[in-house]
Amino acid sequence: MAIDNIRAYSHLTDEDIEEIGRRLDAIKQEVEDSLGARDVAYIKGLIRFQRGLELAGRATLLFSHKRPCFWAGSGMLALSKILENMEIGHNVIHGQWDWMNDPEIHSTTWEWDMTCPSSQWMHSHNFVHHKYTNIIGMDNDVGYGILRVTRDRAWSPMYAFQPVTNVVLASLFQWAIAFYDVELGRFFAGKQTWEETAPRFWEAVRKSRNQVLKDYVLYPALSGPNFLHTVAANAVANWTRSVWAYAVIFCGHFPDEAETFTKEQLRTETHAEWYLRQMLGSANFHGGKALTILSGNLNYQIEHHLFPDMPSNRLAEVGKKVQQLAAEFDLPYNVDSFPMQFLKVQRTLLKLTLPNRFLVASPHNAPEVRSNEAFRENPDVECQLHIGADEHGVRHGLKQGLKLLKAIRPGVREVVGCYLGRTKKN
């Protein structure tokens, strides 16, 4: 039910796709050529602010027995952890700041304030997820192995409890990620030996142990008789950070119209098609400067997937160019408000607690899944579209096609039928 041929699905010519690839390469090169002092000042200033905020939060928690100090300290600590994870750690580990050649701000030396070892995150996220983005059966981030976010994952009774699983995952997100690259599921399924599993397992155990000792033993001990209050405050900060990271990541990957793909698509994929897969498989959300920084600039998830090693502070300016490029080639640019993207994700998670036979929309044309078959089974839609630009240079491509496909979902078929009829007459 996922897309198996992105060239046909995109309604672009081979020349169009290659041109998109060239244009995106040029955008990337332009940014790389302009990196300099203002970018260095941005990341170093942010790191200083984050560390100062953490220090202030932990100092305030020395008096955590007082309610105002408890909440003020918890808030500052939570904010510092969010900044360190989202805008600093995640992006440094991606190699976005390696060009500075600063040994302290480098993907090979940075160890973030998170239970997951940086080295394991670099493999499971930087390599696996970003190379095989939304390829069913290859990208483990499609549901993280425990959630059903697409109909392509076969239903089982465990998904009836998905609302509960979802809440637990959000609350313990850093712990779900801690052993993510260890792939214990493969070990218990007999697909991976203990000799292969053990090094990563014990590395994750050591990192998790150190995080627990730091947050729940060492720093609380410094507050003396307020030990338990400080433990609780650290738990609040970590929970807040986990829920926020979950919300941001899910809004960029699983809202309506974020496409998934089959292994067949990957088999002959070109560099330009990889770009196209990133554009169609990711989603953005609106937000001001504060939301942008707190989300690690992942409100520009499309741009981050196109250019994962581009400094995050440049994604906003790049986003305007990518959106213009999408409009020029009549491609969708998936963006909505943060609350709307979040609600769409939650709706999908609730819907997919049910087996496919109880779902009304076509398995090829639903908010949570589309495939090339959606156009084949709706010739009235396909006949309105054009591969590439027509003789007048006008495009009637994928963006228009998806609007028409959306309109013929159950409940609005008659409306789109009239529209299609009028279009044919014109």
Descriptive report:
- The chain is mainly alpha-helical and 426 residues long.
- It is 60% helix and 2% strand.
- It has 20 helices and four strands.
- It has helices spanning 6-10, 14-34, 37-60, 67-93, 118-131, 162-171, 173-178, 184-188, 194-222, 227-253, 263-267, 271-281, 289-294, 301-306, 315-328, 338-351, 373-376, 379-382, 398-407, 413-425, and strands at 284-286, 335-337, 365-366, 369-370.
- It has a two-stranded parallel sheet.
- Strand 3 (365-366) and strand 4 (369-370) form a beta hairpin.
- The radius of gyration is 23 Å and the shape is globular.
- It starts with 5 loop residues before the first helix and ends with a helix.
- It holds the Pfam family FA_desaturase.
- GO terms for molecular function: oxidoreductase activity, acting on paired donors, with oxidation of a pair of donors resulting in the reduction of molecular oxygen to two molecules of water.
- Residues 76-335 form the Fatty acid desaturase domain.
- It comes from Corynebacterium canis.
- This is Fatty acid desaturase.
